[in-house]
Amino acid sequence: MTSDLNPLTIPMLIALTAAGYALATSGVTPQSAALVALGLLAAVTAEILLLRNSDLSVIYLAIIALETLIVLALAAWLGEAITPQRIAGAGLVLSGMALVAH
């Protein structure tokens, strides 16, 4: 499928999708329903635009990779311990996606 989107728009939409999903999953408490809704709305809107205009396999892998990195960075920013197990887990997710992509 050929893309109708500007080549510069695609990375921005991937980042918005990944950030939206990360925001939605980081705000899962009863007090933050609006944060979850906002994150999901941004993610779903950007993802629909991407998937209508781009290759599903490439776009989805990019979204998951970026979301993994955002969640790891958010955990570090919030003061969570970045243990070797967490780094290894993120590395396995990213390595697995690299294998699937090739």
TrEMBL record:
The chain crosses the membrane at residues 34-51, 58-78, 84-101. InterPro entries: EmrE-like. It comes from the Bacteria. Keywords: Membrane, Transmembrane, Transmembrane helix. This is 5-aminolevulinate synthase. The lineage of its organism: Bacteria, Pseudomonadati, Pseudomonadota, Alphaproteobacteria, Rhodobacterales.
